[in-house]
Structures are given as C-alpha cells and as structure tokens.
C-alpha cells in the first residue's frame, strides 16, 4: 500500500518533462516546476501537485476544461488569475475554483510578483477530457487508459483546431 501521508517538505519540484516544456517564443512566457503528489499517496480520483512559477511567467496557456474541475490554493507569492474575461489579484491563502464549462470558465495563473508563485493544484481525473485554448483557438483531447500488467498507462493526446478534422469515413 502507498503511504497515505506526505509532508510538503518531501515534495521535490522538478522542471516539466521535455515533452511538456515550452519552446520557441512560448518559452519567454511559460515556465514551471512541479511536484506530483497524488500517485505518491495513492490518490485515484483526484490529481494533486505543487506548482511553482517564476516571476513574469505562466505555467499553462489560458484554457478551460469541459469535463474536469480544478481547485488552486495559493501557498506563496502574488499573481493574477485570468478567469473568463475577468482578472483577479491572488495572494497566499486564496482558494480558486475552476469548474468545468465553456470559454467563460477559461483560466490561467500568472506570476506578477518579484518572487516565485507557488500553489497547490487539485483536479478531478475524469477521462477522456476536452480542453479548449481561447487565446490560440485550439482544443485538446486527452484520454488515459489503465496499464496492462507490467506496462505504463496508455495515453492518447491530440491538440488541433476545429478546421483540421478529417471525415469519419476518410481512408476506410
């Protein structure tokens, strides 16, 4: 059985894996270090992590989830929450709710301070998930399937734009 308790001092923040690291012009705006918690304590239906954002950066693009709900608790630093068309200042002790929905629920946390911005992120883990990215008019579909014996979980990820779709019968 996985140990069901972990102290925040035991969470090692790591740069994102290369596959998720921002490149090109996006690297000027996006950066984060993350420490995964959920798998370490045996979580099954919720994902948890600590995310740390350097000054002037964002961890993720402005996005909304059609299926999963997220909650953030600010641990350290100051910043700004973009939520729909509004902007809200955030500081330590603030809870942020990001329910599933359309573009009106799109959200992004931006570090506007001089030091790091650190928060606890909690999310449901319903799969498949559809995310939309209003700033770039993209969408993403993500599905995770349980692993077979001795295998890693299977992941399906597609990011595109609505006009790039192929017909159902194409190539059959």
What does this structure look like?
By secondary structure, this protein is mainly β. The chain has a domain at 8-126: Sandwich (Jelly Rolls), CATH 2.60.120.10. Helices cover 2% and strands 41% of the residues. The protein contains one helix and 13 strands, in the order ββαβββββββββββ. The protein has one helix at 38-41, and strands spanning 14-15, 33-36, 46-53, 64-65, 70-76, 79-83, 86-90, 95-98, 107-111, 117-124, 129-133, 138-145, 154-160. The strands form three sheets. A six-stranded antiparallel sheet has the order 1-2-3-10-5-8. Strand 6 (79-83) and strand 7 form a beta hairpin. The radius of gyration is 17 Å and the shape is globular. The N and C termini lie far apart (46 Å). The relative contact order is 0.17. The model has no long low-confidence stretch (mean pLDDT 94).
